[in-house]
Write a structure and sequence with these properties.
By secondary structure, the chain is mainly alpha-helical. It is 80% helix and 0% strand. It is flat.
Length: 331
């Protein structure tokens, strides 16, 4: 790729990174003030956008710095991952307890809420330490300073170079292939690991598509919404799978705690109806969510959604190739 093309790609990537790092900083400030679950969600989304852009533009950025930047942002995403999952579980348990009217079920629900709340409280100090470390290292501002030296000011008329469309095609084509690999597992509801991996692949495709969305003049909006819907569908299924896997372990651990305190497990019996109720509730919900996702997928398949997406990302590459082709002069 020619140097002038590289400069244009670097400028595009730098502008995208600066905007999203600033969004990440705003989310971090919100989290530091109140550690609210929605603020944590926004932080994780912002950090993933930055990570995706760093991955895509890594070949064009300073090699001695890029690994440090990637590891730093990845650490931030990971630090808040477990907390976000706990917040989702706590919100579900709280709503379930409020709706539940059977007295025999409430003790088990309350016990799970207590244990999850205790675990959530233990994370608070770690989160604050993580944010303090980031402020001390000032890594995000350092990335912005580096990006500003490579960015360009927005103008009224923006012309995207052919090399940028070529890069977008290479990235998105690969991400789309990775995502569609998991299509073969959709008919098998028991493939919980593979469906979870499909959700991750959908997320990676979506964030990569967001990086390049501006060069396609709004043509990616519908595809982005579909990918968000897929994330939601598979995310809700995943939440149920987490509960189904968690509850048997919770039962064994809680039995040991009860036995250690009382010298026997008899007091545990009044907790069991509530725990079993949650287990059945999540299994039933999971089945319903899975069937809904299958219906959605069949609809997207009938509309040739992924073929249309592939066509949109390849057309500019073909057009640029044709426009730049100059046949030899006849003699």
């Amino acid at each position: 790729m020619k140097k002038n093309n590289e400069a244009e790609i670097i400028a595009f990537g730098s502008n995208y990174l600066i905007a999203n790092i600033q969004n990440l900083q705003a989310s971090m400030n919100s989290v530091e003030k109140r550690i609210h679950d929605e603020d944590i969600h926004d932080l994780r989304v912002a950090s993933r956008r930055v990570r995706t852009a760093l991955e895509i533009f890594a070949p064009y950025l300073p090699p001695k710095k890029i690994k440090l930047w990637q590891n730093s942002v990845r650490k931030l995403t990971k630090a808040f991952g477990s907390v976000r999952d706990l917040d989702v579980q706590l919100d579900f348990i709280k709503q379930l307890h409020e709706k539940c009217e059977e007295k025999t079920i409430k003790p088990g629900i309350r016990r799970i809420f207590t244990r999850l709340s205790q675990k959530r409280g233990g994370f608070k100090k770690n989160l604050q330490e993580t944010l303090s470390e980031y402020k001390k290292n000032d890594i995000l501002n350092k990335i912005i300073l580096s990006m500003e030296s490579m960015s360009v000011q927005n103008t009224n008329e923006v012309i995207f170079p052919p090399a940028l469309f070529q890069l977008a095609f290479e990235v998105l084509h690969k991400k789309l292939d990775k995502f569609l690999f998991y299509e073969i597992f959709i008919p098998y509801p028991e493939k919980t690991k593979e469906l979870h991996q499909m959700r991750i692949a959908a997320k990676q495709l979506r964030y990569s598509l967001e990086v390049f969305a501006s060069i396609y003049s709004g043509k990616m909006d519908d595809f982005l919404q579909i990918l968000r819907d897929i994330q939601t569908d598979l995310g809700n299924i995943r939440d149920c799978d987490v509960w189904v896997a968690y509850l048997p372990r919770f039962i064994e651990k809680e039995k040991k705690l009860v036995n250690s305190f009382f010298g026997n497990t008899r007091p545990f019996k009044h907790l069991l109806p509530g725990i079993q109720y949650i287990q059945n509730n999540r299994e039933d919900k999971r089945n319903a969510l899975y069937q809904e996702f299958v219906r959605h997928w069949e609809n997207w398949h009938k509309q040739d959604t992924w073929g249309k997406l592939r066509q949109e990302i390849v057309e500019p590459v073909i057009k640029n190739s044709v426009d730049n082709f100059h046949p030899p002069l006849s003699t």
